């Protein structure tokens, strides 16, 4: 095993392990942005700028790292890269531009943006190096790819359309309201559900500890925040909030 291979393997192990402290931290400390924005976290930036900067490694670093892989020209690797970039091109460039016109969005702490930037840089290395250099393509690759892409596509559709509803409510300038329509009829945070579903599909596509580690980390990061948001809705809107809604997974959680 080469030194670069050992480094990557170590990073994959770290990605899987950090989900445990991430879950515990997110369970008891809500990241101070959005409805949980509060003082004490240092200087801030406009929310749309923070999203653009902190998500950018997932596009820029991914493309750079991928280009050095020995399998970079293979159809399978290009297919996986395309799936990964579809999400992050939207998250890095499209989503922030939508937020730019919403004056009611709270500013984003630079400290939190830097933490997210660091993770995205780390994860870009883990995912891009795996799909371009270490992936093993077996006879079932295209079957797994199609199944994973289906889940990924459904998840991204839910994520994007739910974010559009939330941004639309912010544009009205009336403060927080009860979102309705689509998967909001079943859960409080369909945007998070969609993203979890995306990266579950990614784990199937990659069929690797790298992909599974990212899915696990996504769950550790988003599920506690979804729970907190669910409870926040009930606290703010009381009897007006639909009691049948779950937090993030329809009918289950």
What this model shows, in words?
The N and C termini lie far apart (42 Å). This protein has a two-stranded antiparallel sheet. It has 253 residues and is mainly alpha-helical. Helix 5 runs parallel beside helix 7 and helix 8 packs antiparallel against helix 9. The protein contains nine helices and two strands. It has helices spanning 3-17, 19-28, 47-55, 57-67, 75-99, 110-134, 141-171, 190-206, 209-237, and strands at 44-45, 108-109. 68% of the residues lie in helices and 2% in strands.
Order of helices and strands: HHEHHHEHHHH
Percentage of residues in strands: under 5%
Strand adjacency order, main sheet: 1-2
| Low-pLDDT sequence parts | none
Gyration radius, rounded = 19 Å
**Mean pLDDT level:** 93
Structural class: mainly alpha
Estimated helix fraction: 55-70%
Major sheet characteristics: 2 strands, antiparallel
- The number of E-state strands comes to 2
Cα-to-Cα separation, first versus last residue: 42 Å
Shape: globular
Task: Provide the fold topology.
Layout: H1 3-17, H2 19-28, E1 44-45, H3 47-55, H4 57-67, H5 75-99, E2 108-109, H6 110-134, H7 141-171, H8 190-206, H9 209-237
Antiparallel strand pairs: 1-2
Helix pairs in contact: 1-6, 1-9, 2-9, 3-5, 3-6, 4-5, 4-6, 5-7, 7-8, 8-9
């Amino acid at each position: 095993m080469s030194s670069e291979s050992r480094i990557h393997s170590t990073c994959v192990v770290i990605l899987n392990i950090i989900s445990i402290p991430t879950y515990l931290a997110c369970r008891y400390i809500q990241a101070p942005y959005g409805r949980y924005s509060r003082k004490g976290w240092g200087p801030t930036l406009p929310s749309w700028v923070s999203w653009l900067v902190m998500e950018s490694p997932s596009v820029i670093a991914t493309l750079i790292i991928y280009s050095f892989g020995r399998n970079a020209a293979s159809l399978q690797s290009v297919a996986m890269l395309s799936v990964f970039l579809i999400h992050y091109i939207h998250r890095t460039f499209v989503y922030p531009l939508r937020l730019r016109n919403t004056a009611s969005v709270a500013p984003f702490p630079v400290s939190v943006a830097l933490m997210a930037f660091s993770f995205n840089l780390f994860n870009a290395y883990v995912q891009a190096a795996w799909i371009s250099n270490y992936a093993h393509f077996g006879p079932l690759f295209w079957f797994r790819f199609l199944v994973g892409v289906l889940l990924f596509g459904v998840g991204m559709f839910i994520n994007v359309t739910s974010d559009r509803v939330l941004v639309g409510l912010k544009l009205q300038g009336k403060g927080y309201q009860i979102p309705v329509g689509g998967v909001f009829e079943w859960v409080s945070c369909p945007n998070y559900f969609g993203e979890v579903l995306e990266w579950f599909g990614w784990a199937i596509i990659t069929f690797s500890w790298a992909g599974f580690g990212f899915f696990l980390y996504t769950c550790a990061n988003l599920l506690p925040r979804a729970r907190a948001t669910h409870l926040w809705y009930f606290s703010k809107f009381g009897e007006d909030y639909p009691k049948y809604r779950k937090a993030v997974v329809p009918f289950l959680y």
